[in-house]
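Give me structure tokens for this 286-residue protein.
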Amino acid sequence: MKPFEYLAPRSISEACAMLSEHTEEAKLLAGGQSLLFLLEQRLITLRHVIDIKKLTQLDYIKRGQNSLKIGALTTQRTLELSPLVQEKFPILRQMERVAAPIQVRNWGTIGGSLCHAEPSGDLGVALIALGAKVRAVSDRGEREELLENFFVDYLETILKPDEILTEVEVPTLLPHTGSTYIKESRMFGGFAIVSVAVIVTLNRDTISDARIVLGGVGPTYVRTRQAEEYLKGKRTKGKFEEVGTLAANEVHPSSDMEGSAEYKCHIARIIVNEAVVRSIKQATFM
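Here you go.
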């Protein structure tokens, strides 16, 4: 690890000023699970590290107006254990319990995970399926964006060098909505070979809305819109085997150490079908 200047702002505005001053030469340090590894391996070099861990105003989970608001410095473990999350968004707790070892969940932050933009990560898959949006601030002001538009390429987001991700907002789920997260990985808490989040809303015995998002199948997360449209209007007592095939046909994974492209598509078909069935069963009893 090469030497760098350590900076510790006491407010969001001070952090923004530091980023604005140093731009491309600085990175934010939150939980440190990703940045410290990159520095130790000399995969990146920096002149300035801006530690924002003490900005406690970014550490919260609270009710919004028809939404859940999560501060960017909230840890993954806090999200997992939140009674509000368990009650209103069980898919987030389900996802966090398999996302990483508990030591990582204790330190890793929501904002850090999303900004790292690892396509085999877990959080982005579930939050995109939930229709989440994110907020970012800089010296130039504040803006918000749908999370599904936040990721642009491998380890790359739309954030500008002087922007700080401050909040994630998740809209409240409609009544009779079921949700499921499934991940296939080599070990518990490891990176996903393929993962899927499914949200299904019912109108009596008919699927009125569906969202299906896959991870580990490309440089960014993939929302499979053809598979979603296939489900809409289907009766809940029907068969849905084709939805997995449709979803797999919408992704183009690369072969790597985790498996061949064909294997990943095979896994995608299986877990999409399973997640849809589970979500429908859950929605039936909501």
